Task: structure prediction
Amino acid sequence: MTTPAIQSPRSPVATGSRARRRSNVELNTWLFMRGSGVLLLVLVFGHLFVNLMVGKGVEALDFAFVAGKWANPFWQVWDLAMLWLAELHGMNGLRTIINDYATKPTTRFWLKALLYFSAFIVLVLGTLVIFTFDPCADPASTLEVCRSH
Result:
């Protein structure tokens, strides 16, 4: 009596031309998580160092500090990169959790649709705040940045 061969559980299910056409979306998202995690470490620790260690420390964090910082395009791009990477990194992590734990396809679809929608809203609003921030919108503003206008 011969025992039938059992496929390895890690072997691909699809065979033939269909198996060759599969995309590497999961591999790319896995690589993105590693790369964005490393970049986020640099961005966040740089952000904390500049905001908390340089100058007067925590006491100096106020509206005028942010206004002065965002008057420089370098810090706008720095904060924008931190916002986008953190949001996409977190969204990808939640997408993975939804794929792992949502058992019904319709539940998975709606949870991911809500996730993508909320991530889009946060990215759009955050980007608008960074690039349209006007510290001189208040005519009574006494900020140094506004006096030079």
About this structure: The chain has six helices and no strands. The longest helix spans residues 25-53. The chain has a mean pLDDT of 86.
